[in-house]
Predict the structure of Transmembrane protein 195.
Amino acid sequence: MAVEVGSGSVSRGFRSLFFMLTPNESSFQKVEEVPQYVQQATPFFIGLMVLELAVGVLRTGGSVATISDGLTSISAGMISRLPLLLMRGCELSAYMYVWDHFRLVELPWDSAWTWWFAFLGVDFCYYWVHRFAHEVAILWAAHQVHHSSEYYNLSTALRQSVTQPFASWVFYLPMALAVPPSVFAVHIQLNLLYQFWIHTELIRDLGPLEWIFNTPKHHRVHHGRNIYCIDKNYGGILIIWDRIFGTFAAERDKVIYGLVFPIRTFEIIFVQLHYYVYLWKRAVTYKTIGDKLSTFINGPSWKPGKARLGDHVDNPKVTGKEVPYEPTWSPSLQVYGALHFLMLLGTYHELFKTKLVCNSQCFFYFYLGVKLCFLLLFEWDFKVVQASLLWLLCGAVESCTYPAVRDQLHPAS
Ligand SMILES: [Zn+2]
Ligand SMILES: [Zn+2]
């Protein structure tokens, strides 16, 4: 697999994972000059996940991750970035439109003040993106992907939704009235990257840092399905927003991770899309238009006659003895899956590296490969076969339309 980072930028690439870049080295005049920080982080993601596994074995004598859950999470991360092959992210595209047409002032792109303002601004907006993603059911349908693992390790950080960016862009638009897109393009990436390392159980407490920063300890609570964890700790980099807006909870009882109603599957399309279908089915059972609409815009736990966020009395009680869903596969099948997956990871990396010259077959085989890998490994049943056919159909459509779309979006290339 080709590694994008040059020798001089290895340190910068690593530090970008912890937001340890100075304004000097991460300010750019034009959006086109902004590095693809997230894409360049792939080798560091892998390195740190391997390190976490090794430290986990040394500390606990067992594995902190499983093949099935880990690969499902990483594949969700890969799928979530596929739209970027065809277009700039929604967040940046919408941002640039507002900047071009409606900006009120132009903060200087090379000022440290602008950099720090953008740092706070993006993190503040992220708090609200994240809070709405939990409190509005149709947005939760996207974000639940990130919460669907019953494990909590670095791979969980990569379990991202492919549909979430199509809604989250709205929340950042106020910044486009003053902050240049090139500055925003840096901070939106670094904010996301910071949230990688906090997905671990191996770091227990960071002392005074816990007051200000979002840490593994605080984010574990966010991923919990214990009652005290629900709808808490939305912060991205800073936890102060939760302290200010009353959504902070400290870690107490053992956290049990995952969705309140675990999905008990590793079928990657199901993980991404099942909640939309669930919401639709729920909405059609209600009689009034108001109730039908409320199903989508109120909280996921809302029911007719309840407050906006509903209550959690119907939730299964968390006992602390819950065991994550983990069907057993033979070691040889697991090795096969892991090797196959590594090859796909290579293809994925190549796709992004060469996206302007990528041919349609490459894209199509990527679809096919990911799907086959999971078909063979995890859940071979009728429903999955149907989903796979749909998946292949999408792949075929994409492979036919990709060159035309690409030429439209990147006419200069
Ligand atoms: Zn969340
Ligand atoms: Zn998380």
Observations:
- The chain is about 55% helix and 0% strand.
- The radius of gyration is 21 Å.
